[in-house]
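Q: What would this chain look like folded?
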Amino acid sequence: LVPGPPERYVEMFRLIAQRNAALVADWLRVGYVQGNMNSDNTLLAGRTIDYGPYGWMERYDPLYQPFTTDRAGNFA
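A: My prediction, written as structure tokens:
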């Protein structure tokens, strides 16, 4: 870390959170469902880098979950 005012890091975190929230919202808006959208699936800049496991939701189903190894629905 480069020494500097703490506000600089708070702002960086705010931007990362905002960009990743927008990424997830944009994907959900078009019906794309990531089975486990976590930090190894995205860049800090808010871009997707890993597309699997995933699926496309044709009809709204709040329990739909394409992560086939999650039979219990923990990621649904």
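The chain is about 30% helix and 10% strand.
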